[in-house]
């Protein structure tokens, strides 16, 4: 998720009053930063599990034996497959700076010589969320009393490595000292080589993936790997980002808040006077004219630098705060949720922190820490309670001084691999689909961030693989037609006498591919 980008407050009334202030809070984007959030849930006793019989695992060796996960508390033993987790140092000479990982090789099918890296966003949010609630084989998400298997897990196809990074995230240890994405990428590629050396891995294809603020991590890390010119350890074959931060996402979100609210107000339920208020802000800030001029296919030219957000133009913040008034269980990551608030095994079902009594935060339990070889003295939080960058500079005031990925590294990764995938969920209000698309239409491969942008009327400016932006617009894109039957609930439909109703879903989004970049919008999908 993006922290997802500000202090998370529980006192919504005070937040509403503060929404008119010049300081951009972006509450939905800094999970865990508020000092008043409760963090004292105690772990419960684990359900006894029997150890698996000794098996011959592909990546099990003398060096990896100490990372092997034999069982997980409250997880049925039948769910357990080859799995490893623990801390690996970034540099051999600095054992007190290390990143925490979970590694799960492919389940079923022939082995594959590839690694798919997954990173959650934040900055400072744990990739164990991705492991337990998104791409992993075990799924335990909002509202589930007990875990289930994920029939759509990525480990059905590939070897997946979930990494808690940068330093300061989750169980990863060390003092955060990064001031840029270049710093983070430098740390990561050192860790990744140490990981491969430990597991005896060489000549594996590498895919770098993530969501939300990882839209900044992924391109910089992939680009740093490509710069190594070492296919033994860094054979980058592609990258994937869901609901990513690749441009000036805060201002771009402001620019598309009104159209998003108009399209989804049957779910959000703003009143007429508030919609008029949003429309006035949108008009006075010039957002409508900007959209008309620059959301063009092909692009009309290089977009001028977007203004810094000011109180009168913080349309997204206004819409975010107002949504809580209408719906106390509002979920910025997935529109449509209503009360009661669902419990979350990781502690954050929305921007509010909640776990039901008897269901404490899973990865902060003592028995779970022991099972996954995590440091016992670290209090695990889904999103760090402190900054993971040193300082508070940069475009979003988070300490990240790097240029937006669209300005250099993302076009380089596209050109090097011709296999980059960017997707947005249509029901995500945290990173809006059209905000991401507007960034793609302004992807500019500057030789240096210090070189000024070309003239805004430069129609011949090239961004990636010889042209600028997408040449074809959404009205010409291909439908995503899901013809596969449901894999997860077939038996339940049959038992209920509704067999056959869960047949193929049909049109579930739009997709488009040009010059090495695929973009999709997925209907009925949110941020995570």
TrEMBL record:
Q: Which InterPro entries match?
A: AB_hydrolase_fold, Peptidase_S10, Ser_caboxypep_ser_AS
Q: Does the keyword Cytoplasm apply?
A: no
What keywords would UniProt list here? Answer: Carboxypeptidase, Glycoprotein, Hydrolase, Protease, Signal
EC no. given is 3.4.16.-
Pfam families attached to this UniProt entry: Peptidase_S10 (PF00450)
Family annotation (SUPFAM superfamilies): alpha/beta-Hydrolases (SSF53474)
Which is a GO BP term held by this UniProt record? proteolysis
Q: What class of enzyme is it?
A: hydrolase
UniProt signal peptide: 1-22
Offer an example of a GO molecular function term for this protein. Answer: serine-type carboxypeptidase activity
The UniProt entry's sequence similarity note says: Belongs to the peptidase S10 family.
Supply the name of the protein: Carboxypeptidase
